[in-house]
């Protein structure tokens, strides 16, 4: 059994709305090139993504919606016809072959699932996935098909396992949460910037599930300008409590890299420190509770030059038990990509210090987050005692 596989096909880069859209999968190419430059990723580690079938996508999406996406990608849909389905909007504009590109991202996550659950590898990474805002019959927030929702349904139908979904994207993982809101065999945990300031506006601690699924949805909304220490305290405590409460058979983590200070779409003040620590704890707990069964996907991350390649590289090096990268980035990589980057690249694995001016409200923000954490942990412990 391999330690981990890296799911990727160059065609995953065809998921592209426009040259100016903030969602840019060139970040996949940048990350792979960085990992290869440090000798952490070899061609034999890479498994090509497959295309998900319509039947597989329909595990989490209406067949009518799938047909709408196909029409949009073949120039057979007007913006007016697409609007009720979230297609042709400013966030999710139409592009050529959008169904085919989206099905490849979903298929990559299913490929990761099968690799782990068929015993071919302990872990699997599909950075092209993590499109957590897609709904059953509507695109949302740059996400056409929700690969994580499809993958969780696929795991349930094919393998009959209990799934913990962990989302550390700065935006609430609403599409996945609502897909399993009444399902007691899927637990969702999301740490995100509060919806008071940020899309999609959901993810309050009071969103706890419904019906038989009540008590399996956990949200940790953090204040704008939250820094590393507060973020990591919430992450560590919530992860340990939720793993112990739910005792999953397999964990699927969504690894958005948009909680970083440089990210243009969010208001959090994270640094590369959090992206070193997030996969470490996920890896540890996957072995403690799930026999090592850990599937990871990408997600948000809109500073594709300075943040995403460094952040996502840490997931792969952690999965494969390689040393945490430190020191300078490879000069070859910096020289190659600086010509194209609109901003000066960060030349080291660590961020420069200080990265930003001191925050006047630091104590207030940390206290607010601590109160939220205590309330959320109380909810988990109450559910644990109830069960």
UniProtKB/TrEMBL annotation:
Residues 21-318 form the Histone deacetylase domain. CDD domains: HDAC_AcuC_like. Pathway: Ketone degradation; acetoin degradation. Keywords: Acetoin catabolism. Belongs to the histone deacetylase family. This is Acetoin utilization protein AcuC.
